[in-house]
UniProtKB/TrEMBL annotation:
InterPro entries: FAD-bd_PCMH (IPR016166), FAD-bd_PCMH-like_sf (IPR036318), FAD-bd_PCMH_sub2 (IPR016169), FAD_lactone_oxidase-like (IPR010031), Oxid_FAD_bind_N (IPR006094). It comes from Phenylobacterium terrae. The keyword Flavoprotein applies. This is FAD-binding protein. The keyword Flavoprotein applies. It comes from the Bacteria. PANTHER family: D-ARABINONO-1,4-LACTONE OXIDASE, L-GULONOLACTONE OXIDASE. Residues 7-177 form the FAD-binding PCMH-type domain. Gene3D superfamilies: 3.30.465.10. Keywords: FAD, Flavoprotein. Transmembrane segments: none annotated.
């Protein structure tokens, strides 16, 4: 068993309930395990926050049924195991879309709540949890709660990494859309200053904003990339997404991602996208879910896997901190083909442990080279911490407990709502 980054591996005893009436017994049995229990979805968390090595896990993916859907109001209630992929297939033909989505649609509703996922529209819509009306939470003592927004248990559960109970179902307010297309504009940028200027300019006029950054650049060229902004089109056509045509069926050699291939790819990709920059109408799938273009893309990093570092730093510190981070990465010769830079808005996240806060977020993958990679990540951590920022637990497989405590001021309040029958490899690792 491994997270999406595949750098951390272990075993768990897994129960797979197929019907809702099987869930109470599955949760009770898993919680009785000496290593305690954790609910799991499609395992798209990159590190170990969704894993329970040496313990038990309850696989929720077969519990994916819709309880109710009001096509007039866009309110849906569905099992926590329903994926965003399945939700879109149901909702889009009826004129609705999930209000917030991450870079992949292969996450469950329960996972989206537990990690309070965010998207390219955070400056407008906030996090996923901001659109959850109510949820059902089964605790390992056998009690079932239905907290709503504003309840302390709701705040602990949204972004709570599955540690406050097993989410049974989620009631979500969807977003109305005319069709399946977006009006997209790609703009080449030559520096971080360009990025911050375009972000500030675009947030009032565009629902989605994000930038791809060339991570190999340093000095005056740091921050070079492509800034993308988009709004939903009024085109009424609603074709659904298709399965990806490209796939990585086996592990690539461990040397596939290296300084030479990174420089070559980033230069070629920037040149191609710069040449094709401008405005276009595009289907939601490649714009909204770039991580789904190639099935099994995590195999590109080879059998040792990779670590992702995703941070957010406050607005005042962001220009200097992002320059320092990208220069450190560029000097290291490490990095990835997809580096995402985006600003978060000031809409408060509903969860005590939600990752987004006002500021700028940078997400980048690093091939797993053992101690050398961990040392690089520690240097990046120090920059983030000095800037008053935090790391994203859903992407993490190695942050220290001190780093978690420094970034999450509500940590002690969150602890008061933990379910003692639940645990994870991440949670045990970050304990004092």
């Amino acid at each position: 068993m491994a997270g999406w980054g595949r750098a951390l591996r272990g075993t768990s005893e897994v129960a797979r309930p197929r019907w809702r009436d099987e869930l109470p017994a599955a949760v009770a049995a898993a919680a009785a395990h000496p290593g305690r229990a954790l609910a799991m979805g499609l395992a798209r968390s990159y590190g170990d926050s969704g894993l329970n090595f040496g313990g038990a896990a309850v696989d929720m993916t077969a519990l994916d049924r819709v309880h109710a859907f009001d096509a007039e109001t866009g309110v849906i209630r569905a099992d926590a195991g329903l994926s965003l992929d399945g939700l879109i297939r149901l909702a889009l033909p009826r004129g609705w879309f999930p209000p917030v989505v991450p870079g992949t649609k292969f996450v469950t509703l329960g996972g989206a709540v537990a990690n309070d996922v965010h998207g390219k529209n955070h400056h407008r819509a906030g996090t996923f949890g901001a659109h959850v009306r109510r949820l059902s939470l089964r605790r390992t003592d056998g009690t079932v709660h239905e907290p709503a927004a504003g309840d302390p248990l709701f705040a602990a559960t949204v972004g709570g990494m599955g540690l406050t109970g097993v989410i049974e179902w989620v009631e979500l307010q969807l977003e109305p859309v005319a069709g399946a297309f977006l009006e997209v504009e790609d703009i080449p940028i030559g520096s971080l200053a360009d990025f911050f200027a375009l972000s500030s300019e675009s947030e009032a006029s565009h629902a989605q904003t994000v930038a791809w950054i060339d991570c190999t650049r340093t000095g005056r060229g740091v921050g070079r990339g492509i800034f993308t902004r988009a709004n939903w089109s009024q085109r009424p056509d609603r074709p659904l997404h298709r399965a990806p045509r490209l796939a990585v069926p086996i592990d690539a050699p461990g040397f596939t991602v290296n300084p030479l291939t990174l420089r070559a790819f980033n230069a070629a990709y920037y040149g191609l996208r710069r040449m094709n920059a401008g405005k276009a109408e595009r289907h939601y799938d490649p714009v909204t879910f770039p991580l789904d273009a190639v099935r099994g893309w995590n195999r590109i990093y080879g059998p040792a896997g990779f670590h992702q570092h995703q941070c957010v730093v406050p607005p005042a510190a962001a220009p200097e901190a992002m320059a320092e981070l990208l220069n450190e990465i560029g000097r290291s010769g490490e990095g990835s083909f997809l580096v995402v830079l985006k600003t978060f808005g000031d809409r408060p996240s509903p969860g005590l442990m939600s990752f987004p806060m006002p500021g700028t977020t940078l997400a980048i993958d690093f091939r797993n080279r053992g101690e050398a990679t961990l040392k690089l990540l520690e240097r990046l951590d120090a920059i983030v911490r000095a800037a008053g920022g935090r790391l994203y637990p859903a992407k993490d497989g190695r942050m220290s407990g001190a780093m978690l405590a420094a970034g999450y001021p509500n940590l002690d309040s969150f602890r008061a709502h933990l379910d003692p029958g639940l645990s994870s490899a991440f949670w045990r690792r970050v304990q004092p």
